[in-house]
Structures are given as C-alpha cells and as structure tokens.
Specification:
- The protein is mostly beta strands.
- It has two domains: 197 residues, Jelly Rolls; 137 residues, Sandwich (Jelly Rolls).
- The chain has two helices and 29 strands.
- The strands form six sheets. It has a ten-stranded antiparallel sheet with strand order 1-2-17-21-14-11-16-9-8-29. A six-stranded antiparallel sheet has the order 7-26-25-28-23-22, with no helix packed on it. A four-stranded antiparallel sheet has the order 3-20-5-4, with no helix packed on it.
- It is globular, with a radius of gyration of 23 Å.
C-alpha cells in the first residue's frame, strides 16, 4: 500500500490515524487527489473515479446521515464479476434453526486454534444468532480462528456491521479507507459494505465478532453523567488514505442475504486514493474507557459500561449494546460488590479477552464465552458469593481484566456447531448448587 502523502493525524506504530467519533474526515494519499469545494467534478485528478458509499438512507436526519465520497482507480461496478455461491463453512445468519438445547445459562471453554489453514473469513464460527438479517434486526455472535492471512482475498459484508475483538494475536485490516492494526484490548468496527482483507501480525489469531444487522453503532447518551467519561470521542481512530494499485488475480467475497458469494478480479479492490465523509472503519482501545460507578453504596446497572450502542426505534432499547468490564476501583460501603443475581429481558453473550471476571473467577477463561439468554437467572458463582459476602470492605482495584458483553433485546439461538463443541461446559449451572440456604427468621 502507498504511504499517506499528508499524515495529518496521530501515529501508532507505522500507521497514522485521524481521531474522533463520527467526524467528517478527509484524507488523500496523493496531493490534490481530493476535490475541493465539490464531490463529483467532471474530471477527477489522476484519472480517478468519484463514488459515494451511503451507510444510511439519503434522507436520514443530518445527525444520523452517514456517507463518504471515495476517489478510486476503478469504480466498484467493476467488481461485479460473475458471482457464484461459495461455502459459508460455519458462518450462520439469523433466522437460523437453533440447536435443541434445554433452556439454561451456557458457557464454553476457549476453542483451540486449528492446524488447518484458515483466513479470518474461512475461520468464522457462529455461536449465536438473533432476529432477522433481512429485516435488519438482531445480531450474531461469532468467534474467529485464523491461521493465515487473506493475502489476495478480499471481503465485504452487506448483511451487517461488524465489531472485531482480538483475544489472541494481532491483525492488520487493509481496507478501502486505509489500514488498521489491532490486538487484544482493542476493537475494530467495520461498517457494512466496506471492502477489506485481514493479515496476521503475530501468528495465529483468535477473537470475537459481533455482526450487527440493525442500525449502526453509535456512542450512548450520557444523561446526567454529562459531557465526559465512558468512551470519549477523541479516543476513536479512523485510518488515513492508503491504496493498493496492484494488478494481480484475487477474489472478492460478499456476504449478502445470509450467503457468501465470490467472484474473481484482476486487480485489488482497495484502490481508494482519497476519501472524505463520516462513514468509515475505525478502532478503539478499550483501555481508554473511563468507567464511572457508585461511590458510596449499592451496585449500578452494567449499562454504565456501554462503549457503543445500536439503537432501535424504542427509546432505551438496543438492538445491540457493546459493554465492557475493564480495570476499575470498587469502593462501595456495606455493599455486595460483584454483579448481583438477576433475570433480564435482554440476552447477554459474554467473553473474556484477558484476566479474570470477578463474578466467575473459576471456569470462565480468556477466550471462552457464555450465553445468558432472556429471562434465565444468573449471577455470581458460589465461590464469588461466599468471598464477596465475607470480604473486608476497603477500596479494591480490579486490575488486568477485560471482559465484554454483546447484549440484545432479542433471544439468541445457539448454532448446532456451538452446541456440539467439546468445550461446552455441561456442568456450568453446578456453579450455583453450592449456594447455601441462609434464611433464619430469628436473626434479622
């Protein structure tokens, strides 16, 4: 890829990023490639083609209108080769026939990396689906197991926006808009329709993916918290323009209508020399999240840890919330500090990137994942309850931990692949069997 002509951003490693969330960015990899004062001149500089990529309807309100103008070597209509349906392997899309599992909270140990050569797309394994992708409602939770880079294979998803959460190994995402590097503790958000390839930066890679079929992720409202804390806009990073001008056989795979479709190309589709707009991939370092919480007593709802939300038309109800549980201080007095026992109208897919999770110190391992579906009770295991109930309460810092949750208002259906894994912990619900009957009507 060509290096950017005008850096105009912050450098991280060998890459440069523009900062901010939802900004109207502009960037060019060659001087003068970006038109000034207009979007579609009669003749673009360098013989480029102007092309608009719209992430929202044209008439969406200004605050939610998403689009970018791309100035590329060849327009995307030239990517319309003769598509043929290709094997989706273990990638599933809602609505999806669910496995016949008894209703219960579920948990899995980490799935080992395979010996077989798999790219990020070939190694996509769906754990749960919810809703209906064609109806643009719901989500899917996946893990990826990648043992080789995509090289001359490119991809875009027309069904949904994607959050990638590396858990083991680092990735480089080469996109139409530029390059993004990410490792454990970072999140990469790839809006629908954006072409990319993924390379391995440090050997085989494993991580989590949320495929959001609904409205685009945005920052949650802070309400009484005010203007600061949680995920601050300045910590989001969007790439600067870099392009591939390479004539070589390659493939482009498109996820559309729940299936994968592939065509052969004679040149790289990552040929955008300049672009401007607010519809672009971006990344966020989860360790920059500024948590807030109760300073005197009781336990706040986990919604205070929301990084991004994909809203529905019902106020306060998310198609998907992306929530994290990072390093933080616990200081509440006379309070049971781990998450309390509860039943929830929302359904929760949870994973652990590194460290330990305070409510499940045993059995919930980095790389593992769990599902607590709609109206199924859950909470701290027996050891966590006993330890927290007897703990000497003083300020305590939870350190070296990063758990996350994809929470949706729809029930999540487990795939047959996930239901058949050897890593499914069939004894998971036993973690609560040791909770003693403590009631004594004579001792208030």
């Amino acid at each position: 890829m060509n290096a950017p002509f005008d850096l105009g951003g912050v450098r991280q490693g060998e890459l440069v990023y523009q900062t901010g969330f939802g900004n109207g960015f502009e960037t060019e990899a060659l001087p003068g490639a970006l038109p000034v004062g207009r979007n579609s001149p009669q003749r673009c500089a360098y013989g480029l083609y102007a092309e608009q990529l719209s992430g929202s309807p044209f008439t969406a309100p200004r605050a939610s209108n998403e689009r970018s103008w791309l100035y590329r070597i060849q327009p995307s209509v030239q990517h319309l080769g003769r598509y043929h349906r290709t094997d989706a392997r273990l990638w599933r899309t809602a609505p999806c026939p669910q496995a016949d599992l008894a209703i219960a909270p579920l948990r899995w140990s980490p799935v080992p990396l395979p010996d077989a050569p798999l790219t990020l797309i070939e190694g996509m394994h769906t754990v749960t689906t919810a809703g209906d992708a064609d109806g643009r409602a719901g989500m899917a939770a996946h893990i990826y197991l990648a043992t080789r880079g995509m090289e001359d294979a490119y991809f875009y998803n027309a069904d949904g926006e994607m959050i990638f959460l590396p858990q083991h190994g680092a990735l480089r995402f080469r996109t139409e808009f530029g390059a993004i590097d990410a490792g454990p503790g970072e999140a990469v958000i790839m809006p629908r329709g954006i072409k990319f390839a993924a390379d391995l930066l440090s050997g085989p890679a494993r991580g989590y993916v949320c495929e959001n079929y609904g409205s685009a992720f945005t920052l949650p409202e802070r309400g009484p918290i005010g203007a600061n804390c949680l995920a601050n806009p300045r910590d989001f990073k969007t790439p600067v323009a870099r392009y591939e001008d390479r004539a070589a056989p390659c493939t482009l795979t498109v996820k559309w209508g729940g299936a994968l479709w592939q065509t052969e190309l004679a040149y790289s589709p990552l040929d955008v020399v300049a672009w401007h707009g607010n519809y672009a991939p971006y990344k966020y370092d989860l360790r920059h999240f500024s948590p807030v919480g109760p300073l005197l007593f009781d336990h706040a709802d986990p919604s205070i840890f929301t990084v991004l939300t994909a809203p529905t038309g019902t106020p306060g109800t998310a198609n998907v919330d992306f929530v994290i549980f990072p390093d933080r201080w616990a200081v509440a007095e006379n309070t049971f500090r781990p998450p309390w026992y509860h039943m929830n109208i929302m359904s929760e897919f949870m994973g652990l990137i590194y460290g330990a999770y305070d409510a499940k110190p045993q059995g919930f391992l980095p790389g593992g994942f769990s599902l607590h579906n709609c109206m199924l009770p859950h909470g701290p295991d027996t050891d966590a309850f006993n330890a927290a109930s007897a703990a000497t309460l003083k300020p305590h810092k939870l350190e070296g931990t990063m758990a996350f949750m994809f929470e949706t208002y729809l029930p999540q259906r487990v795939t047959s692949w996930a239901a058949g894994l050897a890593e499914l912990q069939h004894e998971y619900t036993d973690c609560w069997r040791g909770l003693a009957r403590r009631f004594d009507p004579t001792k208030p």
